[in-house]
Amino acid sequence: MRYFVQFSYLGTNYHGSQTQPNGITVQETMEKAFSTILREPIALTFAGRTDAGVHARKMVAHFDFPTPLPPYSQLVDRVNSLLPDDIAVEKIEQVSDDLHARFSAKSRTYEYHITTAKDPFLTGRAARVAPELDFEAMNKAAQYLLGTHDFASFCKVHTDVKTTICTVTQAQWTFSPKDGLSAEGGHTAKRSYSKAVFQITADRFLRNMVRAVVGTLFDIGRGKRKPEDMLDILEQKNRCSAGQSAPAEGLYLVDITYPEI
Fold it and tell me: How far apart are CA 117 and CA 251, in angstroms?
């Protein structure tokens, strides 16, 4: 029997989501809790991996278990009682045995959060960036990402993937301006802002892809590149052609969709 687990976590205290030898991870922590409750070794297969310091508002994993589980609500409560405060299981449900947390996913959505202020409540949860960015130019550049492209320029080098082709269906910044004008109207270029969020949806993401995209958009927002440069960067298929990766703490996985969920 196959079960899907929906959960969330703050990645600040973890060396990424998936088990590795050099530090504590979300997967390791969750597997220990599930194995303790179910009294059998449990191996979780995550829908994807997040790097150290990256957060997830919605992550999905699956595991197989030979017998029916206890009532799901009770199991959620019991597992949560063993998990630290920065990891929370929201839902457990039985699914078809051929549904795979990673390979069956139809789309994933990430958000990148930035702020201008030194805010102790956002430390580790949003990247602090200079107070003036050209959001009009950044959103113009983001539109070049839409559609099916080779995103090799935004992929971490020496990554073992079969293809760097991805289809992006959404890529846009929204922000809270300081001057009282609506973020939807008026002149947006070089407008001071307090907080902003970049949201991007695709059928799949490469390792470090969103952070590399955001770092490149920062260059455009600061006037170091033109929005049209995004096309050239895509065509070069070279990581050195794109900008530096944005800090991990601003990145959140916020949604994963499946054909049957």
Answer: 17
Q: Which residues pair with 171 in a beta bridge?
A: 200
Taking Cα atoms as reference points, which of 2, 4, 3, 16 lies closest to residue 253? 16
Rounded to whole angstroms, the Cα distance separating 37 from 129 reads: 43
3-state secondary structure of 32: helix
For residues 127 and 246, what is the distance between their CA atoms, to the nearest angstrom?
A: 8
Instruction: Establish whether 64 is a catalytic residue.
Output: no
Catalytic residue among 51, 134, 219, 229: 51
pLDDT, averaged per 10 consecutive residues of the chain (261 residues), comes to 97 90 92 96 95 95 93 94 98 95 97 91 90 91 98 87 95 76 46 84 96 97 96 96 95 94 58
Q: How far, in Å, CA of 39 to CA of 93, rounded? A: 19
Q: Which pair of tokens denotes residue 253? A: 């996985």
CA 184 and chain centroid, separation = 25
Q: For residue 88, give the 3-state DSSP assignment.
A: strand
